[in-house]
């Protein structure tokens, strides 16, 4: 078996580790299965983002056609991001049990009808419900991050997660440009305005369906094959859902990251819903100009979220996990400060500049978050990803309900208070502690605990005797890079047996 393990890397176009996860990130490669999974994941997530936020750019027309009030529009915006709260946790469970390929393609196909049916919406209630169900598709973010964590090694996981997530999130900005263009083309062909916006929704719907089929037929769950095949051959243990849930929900690190992600990605979703209206109302720019300004916020994901993931990997090479945590705290806190400033600036040009700087820090923090998440748990990786992703949507819902619904606060005041919330909700990162690597303020445990000790706690003695823990053991070995070069770290096991058996 050992000889087979060592020879396995020869089957791949790129260099891999002992888990057959690729150790380099070549964005222009389409080699199977690693880089193909990368491209399929971000494109399908991009398609879902375009569908979910296809309505806001056309709201002036949709509003007049359906007689929507300001409250109706606000509720629909909240519905669009709240739909993914529970679906992201469910997606995490599905990824753990059935694999990211099947889980992702199934969700995309199940939510596509809501996009098609938007074309026949005839009331505020139907519009709200359809946006709610469309929002479920944003749970493909979880399968995207799970897929990347299954294909890329610890050394490049921050980069892979950051680029895949960032390019997928580009859909939020791209749709601000795509949908008005599609609408204009249909209108010029001869359709009335109230008919053109309805036909326009067929474009994101078809895009979404095609991406689902591409994921299912062209993708592969893991470097060694799909879950069904690996379960059947015995190469992968078919886990118990209750055990997976237990180890996820009892890991405090997952809850902290869910909170902090609520105030980077959650803020990003909030801004996607309010920023065009903010510039239109406060600075009296026309709708077209407001849409372009709003698009620049989302389009910054082209480099900002990937940059956060890359920064996470760069600091980890020298400072290990402690570097990842410090970088996340600093970048997200700076994002909060610029958010406060955005609500205070009173000139149009100044607000645009501050918004762009704020977008870079806000989105980079998202990438930095998912440079840490893959290390919190191995057995319950999908659930932890789902919890964190769902936390982003919870943050978006709460922020919009508290600061941007009704007339209690002006939009600029709400933005300022949102910045203060970012700063406060980032502080708990200081409590995340890995005994084998340390945390922001403390080094590794003096008990000499290793990576194997940490990840083996998720398996019972009986499960270890049956060898179910072997994948976690491999990950533990490959994650020693998180010790960094200048940080005191736990000793390396010689015989491969953890010091503590739980």
Automatic annotation (TrEMBL):
Residue ranges annotated for the Major facilitator superfamily (MFS) profile domain, each copy included: 37-438
GO terms for cellular component: endomembrane system; membrane
PANTHER family assigned to the protein according to its UniProt record, in alphabetical order: HIGH-AFFINITY NITRATE TRANSPORTER 2.3
Superkingdom in the source lineage: Eukaryota
Protein name as annotated: Major facilitator superfamily (MFS) profile domain-containing protein
InterPro entries linked to this entry: MFS, MFS_dom, MFS_trans_sf, NO3_transporter
The keyword Transmembrane helix is annotated on this UniProt entry: yes
Keyword Cytoplasm attributed: no
Keyword vocabulary terms for this entry: Membrane, Nitrate assimilation, Transmembrane, Transmembrane helix
Similarity section: Belongs to the major facilitator superfamily. Nitrate/nitrite porter (TC 2.A.1.8) family. Belongs to the major facilitator superfamily. Phosphate:H(+) symporter (TC 2.A.1.9) family.
Record-level Gene Ontology MF annotations: nitrate transmembrane transporter activity
Chain segments annotated as transmembrane: 40-61, 102-121, 128-147, 167-187, 199-219, 287-304, 325-345, 351-376, 383-403, 415-434
Gene Ontology terms: biological process: nitrate assimilation
Classification via SUPFAM superfamilies: MFS general substrate transporter
Topological relation to the membrane, as annotated: Multi-pass membrane protein
Protein's cellular compartments: Endomembrane system
């Amino acid at each position: 078996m050992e000889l087979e393990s060592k020879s396995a890397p020869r089957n791949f176009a790129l260099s891999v580790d002992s888990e057959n996860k690729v150790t380099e990130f070549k964005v222009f490669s389409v080699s199977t299965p690693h880089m193909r999974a990368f491209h399929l994941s971000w494109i399908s997530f991009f398609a879902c983002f375009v569908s979910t936020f296809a309505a806001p750019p056309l709201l002036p027309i949709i509003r007049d056609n359906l007689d929507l009030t300001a409250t109706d529009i606000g509720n629909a915006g909240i519905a669009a991001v709240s739909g993914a709260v529970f679906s992201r946790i469910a997606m995490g469970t599905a990824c753990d049990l059935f694999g990211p390929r099947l889980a992702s393609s199934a969700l995309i196909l199940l939510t596509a009808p809501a996009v098609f049916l938007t074309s026949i919406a005839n009331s505020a209630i139907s519009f709200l419900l359809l946006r709610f169900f469309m929002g479920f598709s944003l749970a493909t973010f979880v399968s995207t991050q799970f897929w990347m964590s299954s294909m890329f090694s610890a050394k490049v996981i921050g980069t892979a997660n950051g680029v895949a997530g960032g390019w997928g999130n580009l859909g939020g900005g791209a749709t601000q440009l795509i949908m008005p263009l599609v609408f204009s083309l249909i209108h010029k062909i001869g359709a009335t305005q109230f008919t053109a916006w309805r036909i326009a929704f067929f474009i994101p719907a078809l895009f979404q369906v095609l991406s689902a089929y591409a994921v299912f037929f062209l993708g592969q769950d893991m470097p060694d094959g799909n879950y069904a095949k690996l379960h059947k051959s015995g190469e992968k243990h078919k886990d118990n859902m209750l055990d997976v849930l237990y180890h996820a929900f009892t890991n405090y690190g997952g809850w902290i990251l869910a909170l902090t992600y609520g105030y980077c990605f959650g803020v990003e979703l909030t801004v996607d819903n309010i920023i065009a209206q903010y510039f239109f109302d406060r600075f009296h720019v026309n709708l077209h100009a407001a849409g372009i300004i709003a698009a620049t916020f989302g389009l910054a994901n082209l480099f900002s979220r990937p940059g956060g993931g890359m920064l996470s990997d760069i600091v980890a090479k020298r400072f290990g996990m402690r570097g990842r945590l410090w970088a996340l705290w600093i970048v997200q806190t700076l994002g909060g400060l610029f958010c406060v400033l955005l609500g205070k600036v009173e000139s149009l040009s100044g607000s645009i500049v501050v918004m762009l700087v704020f977008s870079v820090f806000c989105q980079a923090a998202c990438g930095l978050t998912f440079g840490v998440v893959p290390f919190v748990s191995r057995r319950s990786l999908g659930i932890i990803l789902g919890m964190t992703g769902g936390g982003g949507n919870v943050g978006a819902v709460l922020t919009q309900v508290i600061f941007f619904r009704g007339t209690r606060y002006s939009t600029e005041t709400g933005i300022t208070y949102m910045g203060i919330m970012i700063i406060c909700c980032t502080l708990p990162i200081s409590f995340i502690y890995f005994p084998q690597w340390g945390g922001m303020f403390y080094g590794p445990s003096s008990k000499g605990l290793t990576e194997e000790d940490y990840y083996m706690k998720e398996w019972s003695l009986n499960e270890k005797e049956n060898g179910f823990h072997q994948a976690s053991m491999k990950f533990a070995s490959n994650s020693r890079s998180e010790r960094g070069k200048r940080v005191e770290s736990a000793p390396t096991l010689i015989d491969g047996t953890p010091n503590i058996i739980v």
